[in-house]
Amino acid sequence: MDMHRTDSSRNWASLDPDPCPLSGRFWSTERGSTILTQNAMRNTERCGGECACNDTPYYTTFAPRCCLHNICNGIPRIYDGRVPILVTMDTAMIKSILVKECYSNFTNRRDFGLNGALRDAITVVEDEEWKRIRSILSPSFTSGRLKEMYSIMLQHSGNLIKSLHKKAEAGEVVDVKDIFGPYSMDVVASTAFSVDIDSINNPSDPFVANIRKLVKFTFLTPLFLLLVLFPFLEPMLDKMNVTLFPAELLDFFYSFLKTIKSDRSKNEHKNRVDIMQLMVDSQMSETTKEDPSAHKGLSDSEILSQAMIFIFAGYETSSGTLGFLAYNLATNPDIQKTLQEEIDETFPNKARPTYDALMQMEYLDMVLNESMRLYPSGNRLDRVSKSSVEIEGVTIPKGTVVMIPVYTLHREPTLWPEPDDFKPERFSKENKDSIDPYSYLPFGAGPRNCIGMRFALLMMKLSVVEILQNFSFVTCKETQIPLELSTDGFTTPKDSINLKLEPRGAHC
């Protein structure tokens, strides 16, 4: 594969002059994807076209930082197994790939296959199938729909606060995952399927236990490594119904959702405002249409795939983001105090937050945005080129995987001064215009960004406001400072984030 610049003075720079046989940089990049020592982070000397940092740990980018901001006079290329990967942090190129050329050439994400029951999920499907499914799901996340869901979120946020009062009174050290995981799960299950799991009070519920098992997926499983080393085996394994995810767990959720879907199809549920009903309605309306050119609704398989991916994504990404935010607030008490002052001014005497007022809170926006900059739930974005194309002077051949290393992009010193510091003021009204919008991608960008972005932001803001009305997050001897990140390929803490909750006064 000949990836090159049309300007011969700016050739592609290979970061793998000596990649490992078969696996390329996969093994080192996945194992060290979120780790980089302070010395390596500061290693930004010019390399003169040759990568002088082959031994530098990889930093969620799957490439050393010193090579990723074009210091090496070229665009980096690494290898995931046998597949060459174009790595870019050029924001003009990112805009072209994610937005300008999305529909024409970079519509699809990289797919390793063996998705099992998730094969029809919006995160996996391609081209026209993706457009069709996206258009059907999009109405679920309009402002009107979110306002209808808000009362449900308030109910579960209230349950969360009640449970936290008990923990605070007992002086317990809390694992933030145990706080935000159940809350996220309850909100998702209620708003998507009108199912009240109440995992906050029933942590041993089979639904909760199985979702926790499922999200322990790591890129270091033998099966995933086999796909990286020998991708030609995927069709055969797929015919054998082999999946990357544990089959018994997928079967559990598939059966659970199939029962709900069957009930919706048989009975009238006109007053439902949840996502499952929207999908069922699209299917039912399709069966009544006689026009063969009418827009196609969702099949049974597609409905169940969307429902499953919504559970997994809603639970893991939101709870993880809230956990990192709690850590950032506990380790920056002055910022936490400023946020509490805005909360108290907006909702005096611990009044329940209203939708409209919540959406107008400027400092809350700033704090959440800055936390997602430091710890984006998705640490990389991949797109596959459908045809040979030239972007910003770079010729990208058909079939090339283009990777945007979000975690490192968010900590690039030329884009973010003092990148490792928690500074919400970066996102103030005064500073916001100076931010390149394609240097900040916690939800991706363009037509294929995260469809549930507004939903996730709403549920996260609500929980943060209600918690900080009643408590302050504080560090304790069990708190790991500085925080170490996992090496499993995701932006997750290596160990639990342990904090304490300090009750606030009655007249905040």
From TrEMBL:
| Entry binding sites for heme | C450
Which Pfam families has this protein been placed in? p450
Q: List the signal peptide residues.
A: none
Q: Which InterPro entries match?
A: Cyt_P450, Cyt_P450_CS, Cyt_P450_E_CYP3A, Cyt_P450_E_grp-II, Cyt_P450_sf, Cytochrome_P450_3A
Keyword tags: Endoplasmic reticulum, Heme, Iron, Membrane, Metal-binding, Microsome, Monooxygenase, Oxidoreductase, Transmembrane, Transmembrane helix
Enzyme Commission number(s) from the entry: 1.14.14.-
Record-annotated membrane-spanning stretches:
214-233
What cofactor does this protein call for? Answer: heme
- State the reactions this protein catalyses: an organic molecule + reduced [NADPH--hemoprotein reductase] + O2 = an alcohol + oxidized [NADPH--hemoprotein reductase] + H2O + H(+)
User: Cellular component GO terms, alphabetically?
Assistant: endoplasmic reticulum membrane
Topology in membrane: Peripheral membrane protein
Record-linked SUPFAM superfamilies: Cytochrome P450
For this UniProt entry, the molecular function terms from Gene Ontology, in alphabetical order, are:
heme binding; iron ion binding; oxidoreductase activity, acting on paired donors, with incorporation or reduction of molecular oxygen, reduced flavin or flavoprotein as one donor, and incorporation of one atom of oxygen; steroid hydroxylase activity
Subcellular location, record wording: Endoplasmic reticulum membrane; Microsome membrane
The organism's place on the tree of life at top rank: Eukaryota
Q: Which family does it belong to?
A: Belongs to the cytochrome P450 family.
State the protein's purpose: Cytochromes P450 are a group of heme-thiolate monooxygenases. They oxidize a variety of structurally unrelated compounds, including steroids, fatty acids, and xenobiotics. Cytochromes P450 are a group of heme-thiolate monooxygenases. In liver microsomes, this enzyme is involved in an NADPH-dependent electron transport pathway. It oxidizes a variety of structurally unrelated compounds, including steroids, fatty acids, and xenobiotics.
The protein in question is named: Cytochrome P450 3A
